Amino acid sequence: MDIKVLGTGCANCRNTIALIEQVAKAKGVPVAISKVEELREIMGYGVMSTPGVVIDGKVVHAGGVPSRGNVEQWLSA
After folding, report:
1. In this predicted structure, what is the pLDDT of residue 9?
2. How many Cα neighbours within 13 Å face the side chain of 46?
């Protein structure tokens, strides 16, 4: 599962990455997480508020740290 976290490096972006890593480890789901910090690339996804989360090319979240329940749903799909 290819996951991109979109953001310029704020605390919420780091917390989002940490949460995704925790849930993936707990569920035993292999993930490849990358950080996208380039504003043009972030806007290319149509995300105007960060952090944003893109899973396998699809934007699933934008603005604020996602809830643990949401992350668990994404990693179960």
Report:
1. 85
2. 6
